[in-house]
């Protein structure tokens, strides 16, 4: 029985370590096209998305219109959400590129600072979202990955966790408007 538990423990640690290794944004450093955050988001973009619970069921669908502009040294993204239940929301991101090439972001419903790093065609963001649910505010840890598919198309997948347990995922498809 001791051998069984030792084997399970080793297997658990191996899976844990391998999943950490796969979450390094530098894995994408040679992937093209290179993701230039400012170039992609300055102007108007549209996005379509959904939130899925752990079991895969879709809980909410939404559309987002994003207006991006450079103000001083910040990239400002004004996001307007329209949900399938008729509700709406606005989030304004203020993003700053750091001297080491990483990004920091702030928004009213984000606790502290969002930290992001780009490599190749990928951007990896991590932040704590203050999510209102039935009159309460939940602090959700967001593990956010964006992948530039071509100059106008971006795919985003985000894991939402609370106390280290994944509660669901958000999937978004972005398209830059022409002109």
Descriptive overview:
- By secondary structure, this protein is mainly beta.
- Helices cover 15% and strands 60% of the residues.
- It contains 2 helices and 10 strands, in the order ααββββββββββ.
- The protein has helices at 2-22, 37-41; strands spanning 43-53, 58-71, 74-83, 88-97, 103-106, 110-119, 122-133, 136-150, 153-162, 165-176.
- The protein has a 10-stranded antiparallel barrel with strand order 1-2-3-4-5-6-7-8-9-10.
- The chain is globular and about 45 Å long.
- The N and C termini lie far apart (67 Å).
Identify the notable features of this structure and list them briefly:
60% strand, 179 residues, 10-stranded antiparallel barrel, mainly beta, 10 strands, globular
The major sheet is characterized as: 10 strands, antiparallel, barrel
Radius of gyration: 18 Å
Q: Uncertain spans, ≥5 residues at pLDDT below 50?
A: 8-21
Question: Mean pLDDT score, rounded?
Answer: 90
Helix content: 10-25%
Secondary-structure element series: HHEEEEEEEEEE
Percent strand equals over 45%
Q: Supply the helix-strand structural class.
A: mainly beta
Strands of the widest sheet, in order across it, are 1-2-3-4-5-6-7-8-9-10
Query: What is the approximate shape?
Result: globular
Task: Please report the distance between the alpha carbons of the first and last residues.
Answer: 67 Å
Number of separate strands: 10
Number of helices: 2
């Amino acid at each position: 029985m001791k051998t069984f538990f030792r084997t399970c423990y080793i297997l658990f640690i191996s899976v844990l370590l391998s999943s950490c290794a796969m979450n390094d944004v530098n894995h994408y450093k040679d992937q093209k096209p290179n993701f230039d955050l400012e170039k992609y988001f300055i102007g108007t973009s549209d996005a379509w998305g959904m939130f899925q619970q752990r079991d895969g069921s879709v809980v909410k669908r939404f559309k987002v219109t994003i207006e991006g502009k450079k103000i001083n040294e910040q990239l400002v993204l004004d996001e307007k959400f329209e949900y399938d239940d008729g509700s709406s929301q606005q989030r304004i991101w203020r993003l700053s590129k750091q001297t080491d090439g990483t990004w920091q972001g702030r928004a009213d419903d984000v606790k502290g600072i969002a930290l992001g790093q780009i490599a190749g065609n990928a951007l990896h963001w991590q932040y704590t979202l203050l999510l209102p649910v039935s009159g309460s505010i939940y602090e959700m840890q967001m593990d956010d990955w964006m992948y530039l598919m071509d100059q106008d198309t971006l795919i985003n997948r985000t894991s939402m966790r609370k106390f280290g347990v994944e509660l669901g995922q958000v999937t978004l498809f972005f398209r830059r408007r022409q002109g």
